[in-house]
Write a structure and sequence with these properties.
- The protein has a single domain, classed as Trna Endonuclease, Chain: A, domain 1 (3-Layer(aba) Sandwich).
- It is about 40% helix and about 15% strand.
- It is built from six helices and eight strands; from the N terminus they run ββαααβββαββααβ.
- Strand 4 and strand 5 form a beta hairpin.
- The longest helix has 19 residues.
- It is globular.
């Protein structure tokens, strides 16, 4: 990392994961947040989180590894990467997830935004309209700010069937979104601090909208 008390010009932000720039203030804030996380975290949880972050780095460097990741590890990896990006993340228990796998919070947002993420990591199936309808209903019931249905295998051609006319803050994304989240974490952890870190925009960038609210 190359810390500086001066702002860098925009071209400096378009660099690889291997080299990064940021202000001294950014560096101090990141170190402070990292140390606070370490103080509160049990050792076993820290080991698992570290392993998941290493997995995120692997996916960022080599996306062909993504299909080989077990579904539960994918959920944990996404949770760790999103946590590393600045979100507060709760990974739900298997079988008792209530219709979503990750509860993601932006505590720094003025409205304390909460997002639900449902992850489908199938090899021979694609989620369709019933899965999307379920997430729409779960988001409404929990009064979450928005929701994301993430499928590494893509979606059926009829995924919007019967619900396309609804206006709901729910979005869809494929495996490319998993890779972009992993790469965003790698850029940040390597020292690339952007001028503005809009977590909402980062989470829903390059996703397909169900309604006009996002």
């Amino acid at each position: 990392m190359r810390p500086s008390d001066c702002r860098f010009s925009r071209p400096h932000y378009r660099i690889s994961n291997r080299e990064a720039f940021g202000t001294v203030s950014d560096l101090r804030n990141w170190i402070s947040q990292y140390e606070q996380t370490r103080e509160k975290e049990p050792r076993g949880a820290a080991i698992i989180r570290h392993a998941m972050l290493e997995l995120a780095k692997l996916v960022a460097d080599d996306p062909s590894e993504l299909p080989h990741i077990e579904w539960r590890d994918l959920e944990r990896m996404l949770g760790a990467a999103l946590g590393g990006l600045g979100f507060e993340v709760c990974v739900t228990r298997p079988g008792k997830d209530g219709g979503f796998d990750l509860e993601v919070r932006d505590s720094k947002a003025a409205d304390g935004a909460t997002y639900l993420v449902e992850v489908k990591h199938w090899t021979d199936q694609k989620p369709g309209a019933k899965h999307l309808t379920k997430l729409v209903r779960v988001r409404a019931a929990r009064k979450a700010t928005a929701a994301l249905l993430l499928s590494t295998s893509g979606f059926t051609s009829t995924v919007f069937s019967g619900i396309a006319e609804l206006e709901a803050p729910v979005r869809l994304a494929d495996g490319g979104k998993v890779i972009s989240i992993c790469r965003a974490y790698c850029r940040l952890s390597s020292g690339l601090f952007l001028e503005a870190r809009d977590l909402h925009a980062m989470l829903f960038a390059d996703t397909a909208a169900l309604g006009p609210h996002l």
